[in-house]
Amino acid sequence: MQKRETFSSRLGFLLISAGCAIGLGNVWRFPYIVGKYGGAAFVLLYLLFLIIMGLPIMVMEFSVGRASQKSIARSFDELEPKGTKWHLYSFFGIAGNYLLMMFYTTIAGWLLLYFFKMAKGDFVGLNADGVSAEFGNLMGQPVLMTVFMVIVVLICMGVCSRGLQNGVEKITKVMMICLLAVMIILVGRAITLEGAAEGLKFYLMPDFNNLMYDSQGNMILGEAIFAAMGQAFFTLSLGIGALAIFGSYIGKDHTLGGEALRVTLLDTAVAIMSGLIIFPACFAFNVAPNEGPALIFVTLPNIFNEMPMGQVWGALFFVFMSFAALSTVIAVFENIISFAIDRWGFSRKKSVLINLAAIILLSMPCILGFNVLSDFQPLGSGTGILDLEDFIVSNNLLPLGSLIYLLFCVSKKGWGWDAFIKEANTGNGLKFPKGIRFYVTWILPFVILFIFIMGYLNKFGIGL
Ligand code: PHE
Ligand code: NA
Question: How many structural domains is the chain composed of?
Answer without folding.
Answer: 1
